[in-house]
Amino acid sequence: MWSRQLNGVLKNVPKIGSLRTTATAVPGEPKGPNIVTAVPGPASKKLIADLNTINQSGSVQLFADYDKSIGNYLIDVDGNVFLDAFTQISSIPIGYNHPELLKVFHEDHKLKALVNRPALGVYPGKDWPEKLRNVLLSVSPGLPQVMTMMCGSCSNENAYKALFISYRAKERGENVDFSELENTSCMVNKPPGSPNLTLLSFHGAFHGRTMGTLATTHSKAIHKLDVPSLDWPIAHFPRYKYPLEENVRENQAEDQKCLAEVEDLIEKYNKKGTYVAGIVVEPIQSEGGDNEASPEFFQELQRIAKKHRAGLLIDEVQTGAGATGKMWCHEYFNLESPPDIVTFSKKMLTGGFFHTLDMRPKHPYRIFNTWLGDPGKLFLLEAVVKVIKQQNLLEQVQKTGNRLKAGLLDLEKQHSNLLNSTRGRGSFLSVNTTDHGLRDKILEKLKQKGVIAGGCGDHAIRLRPSLVFQEQHADIFLDKFSQVLNDVK
Amino acid sequence: MWSRQLNGVLKNVPKIGSLRTTATAVPGEPKGPNIVTAVPGPASKKLIADLNTINQSGSVQLFADYDKSIGNYLIDVDGNVFLDAFTQISSIPIGYNHPELLKVFHEDHKLKALVNRPALGVYPGKDWPEKLRNVLLSVSPGLPQVMTMMCGSCSNENAYKALFISYRAKERGENVDFSELENTSCMVNKPPGSPNLTLLSFHGAFHGRTMGTLATTHSKAIHKLDVPSLDWPIAHFPRYKYPLEENVRENQAEDQKCLAEVEDLIEKYNKKGTYVAGIVVEPIQSEGGDNEASPEFFQELQRIAKKHRAGLLIDEVQTGAGATGKMWCHEYFNLESPPDIVTFSKKMLTGGFFHTLDMRPKHPYRIFNTWLGDPGKLFLLEAVVKVIKQQNLLEQVQKTGNRLKAGLLDLEKQHSNLLNSTRGRGSFLSVNTTDHGLRDKILEKLKQKGVIAGGCGDHAIRLRPSLVFQEQHADIFLDKFSQVLNDVK
C-alpha cells in the first residue's frame, strides 16, 4: 500500500477504510474500485462496434451504466466499478446520481420548465429572473450581469461577440448609431460593418471548437487541422519550472517575457489596423497541459488590457464551479477589479457568462439565439449550488486537494525518473510524466485497475474529480497510482 | 367573423367550435384565446423590468406561465391566453405540456440519463446507439450517419467542419497523413494546416450567430454588426413572384440567374485559391423572409456542388421535424441523391446533423466536444417521434396547412392592398405585407387579440405552429387575422 511506502507529510494519515464517510459523500458508494473484465469489457466492445456504424466513435472508451453509477464511482456495462477522477471531462459537479439532483424534476413546476423549453429571450417563464439572481448571480465573481448559453463553445462565442460589440461601441462613441455603410457592408462580411477586430489568445489555450473559439484554441493540432482560421495575435503563456518555491526568479522572468510579448502583439496588431478588442485566457490552461500562471501575471495582464482598451475574458469553463477550492479560480489572483467577462459551462451544467455593464450591448437581439440556455439546467444547478453551500464543498475540495497534492508530491519524490511538476489548486491537480507514451501507459494501467484520470497537453496527467471527492477517495487514488508507478518504473 | 366574409374554397368549412377536437390535440386546451390585459400586462412588465437589471432583455415580449400553458395555447403571467402560431421561434413540436412529454422522466432510467449527463464521445450510456438508431436514424432523410449537438448554431458549426475536413481529405488523397507543416501551421491559424477554404452561402440566409455560421448568415444587419467575418462567396437566392402558377417563366429565369451566380462564384473563388468546400442552404430561407426556391433550383444546385466537389449542406433547423408536412422540407425536392449533410435543432429538441459516409472524419476527436448532445433531449425526442408516427401528425400538418393556406389566399384576395405572396408548405406558411411598419402593426394587433405569430425578413408574417395545430386552430387564427386586417385597412 502506498501509505506504507510514503514518508513525510502523509505519515500519520489514517489508512483507507478507517475514515468515516462524511456528510458530503453520496450515500451508497461502493468501498472502492472493482474490475472484473479487461477494459473495455465484452459488453462495451459490442456497443462500441455498434455505435461506430452510426458515427465516428473512435474516442469512446467504454459504455457506462448511469442507472448504477453512484457518487465518485462510474460503473460500466460489464460491471466494472471505477473511481472517477476525471468526471466526464470535468463536468460532473457533485457525483453520479446525487439524491438532490434526482429529486429536482419530481417537482411538477420544474418538470414543466424542462419539457416546455422556451425561447428565453422572448417568452421566459415567470421565475427566470429570480433563478438567474438566486442561483447564478449568487455565485458571480463580482460581476453584475449574466447571460445563459448552451455549452462552453457557445458561451465563449457569444462572449467574444460582446467583446467586439463593446469595443466598437466605445470607438463609435456613446449614442452614435450604426452608419448606413456599416449596415450594408456587414451583410456581405466586409468592413466597416464586419470590422477587422481581433482577439489575443495564448499558445496552449483551449476555448472551444466552433470557428470563432477555434481561432483562439492552440492546444492540439487534431482540433484545428483543415478548418480555416483567422490571423489573430497569439502570445506565449508562461511555462513554469517546478517546484515553484525553488524557481521564483526564473518564473518571474518567464512572466515578464510573456507579458512583454502580449503588449508587443497588441501594439503590432493595433498598428496595422486589426485592433485587439480583447484578451481571452484560462486561469489554468487545462486541455493544453494544466499550465498555471501567477497572480502577478494575471494582474499585469489586466493592466495591459485596460491600457489598450481591450476587454479581459477569463474562461472558467473547466476551472470554475469550485474545482480549485474557490468558486472561480481567478479569485486566487486578487485582480484590482473583476475581469470584464467570465465564461462558464461543464460543472455549472448550463453554459453562460458573467459580465460588466460595459459588456452589455445597448440593443437587443445582438447576443441572442433561439433557446439562450435551458431552464431545466438552471434547476439542476440550483440544487448543485445549494449542496455546495450547505455542505461547504469548497472547504472539502481544499482538504481533499491538500491530501492529493501531498501524495502526488511524495510519489514524485519517490519516482523522480517518471514524474515531475506536481501543480494545481484545490483538487484541480496535475503532474507531468517524462513523456507522452509513458503518460498514456500510466492512464491505461490506472483504468485497468479501476481508476479514471485524464491526460492533457503532451505528457501531463490531470485530476478532475467531483466536489464530493473526499480524503478517502484521494487515498484510493494515490494507492492505485503508486501501484501503477511501481509497475512501470 | 371571417367565415362570413370569405368566399371561395372555404365557403363550406364548419364554423369554429363545431369541429370536434380530434385525437391529435392535447387534452385540456381552452376553446380559444382570451385577453384580459394589455400585452404585456402589469405582471409581465414588472418581470421584464426585473430581468433587465440582470441582462439585456429588450427582446422579451412577455413572461409565460408554463405550468398553465397547454397544447397550442400559451398562457402568460397576467392570465392572458394566446393561440400560439409561433411556438418559441418554431421550437415546440407537439404543443405545451403534452402528456407524452410530461411522463418521459417519470421513468427512473431516463431521469438518471438526464441528471448524469455524460461526455457522449467518451463514456456514453448503454442505450445510446439504440436511441440514435431508433429515434434519430428512424427519421433520417436517407443519410446513414448522425451526430448529436447542443443547438442549431453548434450543429451548423460542426457540420461546416465536416465539410472542410472531407474536402481536404479528398484533396490530400485517401490514407495520406497530415504533413508536419500542416500540423505546425494550424497551431498558429495559418495555411496549409488552417487552409484557405470557404463555404458558399446565400443573401438572406440564416444559419446561426456563432462566428463560423455568422459568416454564412445574411438576414439582418443587427445580427452581424461589429463582428469580424470572412471573405466567403455569397450568391443571390431566388426571389419569386406570386402566385407561382402565373409567373412560371419569370421564376424559372430567376432560378437560372441565381444558379449561374453560384457557379461563377465557385469558379472565381477556386481560381484565387480560396476553394469552395461546400454550399450551405436552407430549403426555405426562414429568418430572411420565408423565401422559397423550386425543386429544380435545388436539383441543379446539387449538380453544381457535385461538379465542383463541394459538399451540399441543407440546413433544416427551422424547416425540419414535420412543419412542412414532410419530416424534412427538402424531401419535396426529389434530389437525385440525399444531400451530404442535413442539420437540425429546434423542434427536434436536440441539435445535430445527418451525413453521408463521405462526411465522416477518418480520425476521432475532430467533430467532438465535452457533451456532444444530451441524452435527456433524445428521450424527449423519442416521445415526439412516437407521437408524430402514431397520430399521423404529418398528415395533420398537411390538412391544417391546406386550410390555413386557402384562408390566407382568400384574405390576400380581399386585402390586396395589404397582403401578397402567400406561400409555404404544410403549416410552415407566410404572407407578405406591403411594408415593414404595417407588418409590425399587424403582429402587434394580433397579439393584443390573443394570437402570436412571427415576423421574418423585412415585411413577411410567418406562421410556425406546432404539429398539433388543427383545422379549428387555423380557423381561429384566420378569424383574428381577418379582424386585424379590417382594423388596419
TrEMBL record, chains A, B:
Biological-process GO terms, alphabetical: gamma-aminobutyric acid catabolic process
Pfam families associated with the record: Aminotran_3 (PF00202)
This protein's UniProt keywords: Aminotransferase, Pyridoxal phosphate, Transferase
Domain of life: Eukaryota
Cofactor annotation: pyridoxal 5'-phosphate
InterPro entries from the UniProt entry: 4NH2But_aminotransferase_euk (IPR004631), Aminotrans_3 (IPR005814), Aminotrans_3_PPA_site (IPR049704), PyrdxlP-dep_Trfase (IPR015424), PyrdxlP-dep_Trfase_major (IPR015421), PyrdxlP-dep_Trfase_small (IPR015422)
E.C. no: 2.6.1.19, 2.6.1.22
Any one Gene Ontology molecular-function term assigned to this protein's record: (S)-3-amino-2-methylpropionate transaminase activity
A cellular-component GO term for this protein: mitochondrion
PANTHER family: 4-AMINOBUTYRATE AMINOTRANSFERASE, MITOCHONDRIAL, AMINOTRANSFERASE
Family: Belongs to the class-III pyridoxal-phosphate-dependent aminotransferase family.
Name of the featured protein: (S)-3-amino-2-methylpropionate transaminase
Organism: Sitophilus oryzae (Rice weevil)
Gene designation per UniProt: LOC115880208
